[in-house]
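Q: What structure does this chain adopt?
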Amino acid sequence: MNAAGELHWDAPPGEWIVVRLGHATNLKLTRPVPSCELGLECDRLNPRGMDAHFEHRLKPILEAAGDKAGRTLQYIHIDSWEAGGQNWTSGFADEFKKRRGYDITPWLPILTGHAVGSVDLTERFLRDLRRTVGEVTLANYIDRLRERIAPYGVHFSCEPYGRLCVNSLEYAGRSDFPIGEFWTERAFKDRTYGDRFPEFNSYWYHSMKGLASVANTYGKTRVGAEAFTGCRGWIDHPYLLKGMGDEAFSEGVNHFVIHLSAHQAYDDMKPGLTHSRWGQHFNRHQTWWEFSKPWFDYLARCQFLLQQGRRVVDVACLYQDGAPLNFNDINFKLPPGHDHDFCSEEIILRMTFADGRIHLPTGVSYRYLVLPRSGRLTLPVARKVAELRRLGAAVFLQAPINGIPGLEGYPEADEEVRKLAAAWPLLPQGGWNEVFAKDLAVPDFEGEGLKWIHRRTGNTEIYFVANSKPEPVERECVFRVAGKTSELWNPETGEIHTLPDASQANGRTHATLRFGPAQSWFVIFRNTPAEHRSSQNPFVEWKPLQQIKGGWSLSFDPAWGTKKTLTLDQLASWSEHPDPLVKYYSGTATYRTTFELADAALAAGKTPLRLDLGQVEVVARVRLNGRDCGIAWKPPYQVNITPALRPGSNTLEIEVANTWVNRLIGDEQLPLDSKWKDPETLLDWPEWFKQGSPRPSGRFTFTTARHYTQDSPLMPAGLLGPVNILSSR
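A:
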């Protein structure tokens, strides 16, 4: 071929296809960035790509941070992989030969869609190509990044998933803080939320289980999650989010990275700036922000306990060989009550066998190892599994092993792998249920419909058990632990109780647990009981003592609604009021009334009493006789009023905050006073904002993403009751 690209060739007889191969950028651009920063993504298969990015982007930041690098600036983070794939770079042919042991050149026509040799040989080459791309990406991009940031004392964090040609487990294993992701994209059945906690249909849901596996197998303390990502507008609040968070905890997440908090630079711009339409808008302008501490306290208690020790797991699963392995493609389940880890090939090579279990250096052990449905194993992994089998390890196949995945060492390695695996057992026809029944392997946990996870630290067993349903439930629960003190810890309050009516038999502990709507417990087993345990029954039966009816006064923030104080004979949703300033109100309003306790003797403070607010939309703070009795943020909306009650007249004040939804819908009834390309793209700051002048439209809210229209349904708002005083006697 000459310089002009003309081929001069004295071809032998026959029909020939002439293939010319080259490589070029895939034109994948950086996003989202200002136009002045727009450019091509870097070359991830060559160290020069990361070096260029580091020198021109990361290094100036790290240098400017000075002694704060590694302290204030702790991590360099790679978010979910949205930059597409790459399969070539200068020098890749040499990398391929070094790693796979043969020349790539004769096989290159496969990249044009042609088979070479046979379909089987073609597929084997493609497996080798993908494996090599994955290995080189990790070596020249991820490992190179870690090498460059190490002198600054900065750690590496990543969300190791997306459509990329690497094994996500191995990628995550290189992270100091691996982070998964779950979304809040769920449908509501009716205007009052209906089924508040249907199953997840969220993006990257399986990333949580995958990264919990990485933490167990690679020895990471924290499993992060980009938490509550979505685009549902301002409809969510702590109670709605709690059930989703509890499900994430049960998948192995123990550190939420909440999505997201946009900086709010302007006091008078509410709800304020957003990240387009994405995220939960966690910031100081949320209507319920001042009421959110109990939920954050709950999360903190859960995360502390769930970061102790390691997860207890029954089965290790090598899901597939090589790359790509994307978490959303994983489909593997065990019968209820048993947990599993996904393992990469490099983890299999670290396994040992002793005392009837398969062990890893991280301290995790397994009763069983299961191999891929692909029926392919690399020769080193097959030899390792054969060694574990000789020592007595329980190994099961999901499909007969018919050779190696690629051409490396083919055909000799193919034959050796088949011989090694010839006697290995397949999963029986009855699946894991049959395996567990034959081995008398009882479930780690039993509790119908409950979410759970089990961790062990030293001699302490930690179970997290959650009811993610919107109604109370009572369940007989069985824990695979015996011979220890059992305790019930309440992560909402921090109280510790003796586990009521617990009994032990056949190496397990039985107990009946009661759950309120979306409630969770920690059940702790240890050798010595806690020093400070509550003497109260955690499952006390509260009975109505007196209803507080009528005579309510209701006042709103005059800057956001009516200046009138409403007098209410009965409680009703603000959204049903004829006054538009009440109907569309968002924010905090205050209910006030006075009452006398019918049984005056109970005001002495010796009998526990609670105030039940009934239905609250969406959160409330109670003050009785000027004393703060706490925040009610989830059903049952109850607070302890025992210390605040007094004989005679009592003054009750209840602050209730709803969401921004109704006011945003109300503003859509008014003219626009800013220019929009579409509901999530504001074209420019409006003139009234730039000039600091009154808004011409009369709108109350301003935000950079519009989720609602004139016809969007209003949400229930306020205190709906009934309000009752409850007694435990």
